[in-house]
Specification:
mainly alpha, 5 helices, elongated, transmembrane, transferase, glycosyltransferase
């Protein structure tokens, strides 16, 4: 099963539950008390997911590790590559 089919299956199941609550096929006390909250719950969940995604991205940006050893190694490789290209006649400005 591909990841797309997994997402479609989960969203289909959640959509079926939401549709049954909106059309009063299944009755819960919560649905009678707050019908607009049930109706707008997909929008609320998308908004909450967006906030979660922003928080995760910001956390990972702020905790990103600097790779000083790899940066120094890359600089050495650049110097070596320039030297090799200079031997072949390439001129750097």
């Amino acid at each position: 099963m591909t990841k797309l089919l997994e997402w479609v299956a989960v969203l289909g199941a959640l959509g079926a539950v939401w549709l049954s609550l909106v059309t009063n096929t299944v009755e819960f006390g919560f649905v009678r008390q707050y019908p607009t909250a049930v109706f707008y719950s997909p929008v609320i969940f998308v908004g909450l997911f967006g906030i979660y995604a922003i928080i995760v991205v910001l956390y990972r940006v702020f905790t990103f590790n600097d790779c000083e050893k790899a940066a120094a190694e890359l600089q050495e490789e650049i110097v070596e590559a320039r030297a090799d290209l200079a031997k072949l006649g390439f001129r750097f400005k």
